[in-house]
Model the fold of this input.
Amino acid sequence: MLKRLISTENDPATAIVRVILGLVFFAHGSQKALGWFGGGGFTATMGFFTGMMHIPPPLAFLAICAEFLGGMGLLVGLLARIAALGIAVNMVVAIATVHYQFGFFMNWFGNQRGEGFEYHLLVIGMALLIILRGAGAFSLDHLLASGIHSGSSDELVRHR
Done:
């Protein structure tokens, strides 16, 4: 099961998509979890999600984790498929609960009440690539998968 989860080709194009998506979501997750980059931090974000948006606390916590830990996982390419899945689910929920009502386009010119969902679709597309192809080159998943594929489990245990 672990082999299938972390297996990936040594593909630099997939790595580029992974790292860019990881950067974006590490920044967004850092706002929510740590208060960096002008964000409110964990307590304020939980309060907003549970109080204003009426999201149950366990799901609000998972949303913050998906962005922050998912962003970190994508940056280093560790368990990238799981990280990408968490981010994709976040985006589907954001579209369904908030952004769908505002239409497709972002509010580039300030003439609509909210932001559309085009950004979210781009994120979902990038996440799906990673879910299907894995982390790509320059990733811990690739490094770990190479070790698993090159030796038997007995050899791996001896090397630890």
Summary: Residues 11-154 form one domain. Confidence is low (pLDDT under 50) at residues 152-160. The helical segments are 2-6, 12-34, 41-52, 57-76, 80-99, 118-133, 140-150, 153-159. The radius of gyration is 18 Å.
